[in-house]
Structure prediction request, 134 residues.
Amino acid sequence: MDLALALEKKGDWVAALDNYHRAALDEPPPKRGIPQRDFDAQHKYQGAQQRFQQRLADLRSSGKSSEAAALEARLHASEATPKLDEKFHAVMQASTQAMMESASTTRKLPPNRPSKLRKKSSHRTAAFPKHSAS
Prediction:
């Protein structure tokens, strides 16, 4: 995240956005009950995208439309180039998200089975009375 911020301040928007994006992909999903660092990379990436759009608007309004167009073209060219690392992270993130959603859905289901087992076991104990030792 520090590198992305430094690149943004330097004016290298394409590299900065790429680093913000990588940080957002690499950030692990939050785990309940476990203390962990939260870099909030996804929100920082979205903020950087908004600042980039504002930068383009500022360039255009100041009469530098060709510079804005060139910067936007560089960004689109870098996004169009498929990166194996990003594909891998995107698939892993989607998989993790699906597992978390599946687990939360499973936890919300009513526990019917254990209550049936309890009823069956109570019937068995009623059928066999305790013998007293004489």
User: Anything to note?
Assistant: The two ends are 79 Å apart (CA to CA). Residues 2-28+37-102 form one domain. The first helix runs from residue 2 to 10. Helices lie at 2-10, 13-26, 41-61, 65-80, 84-108, 112-127.
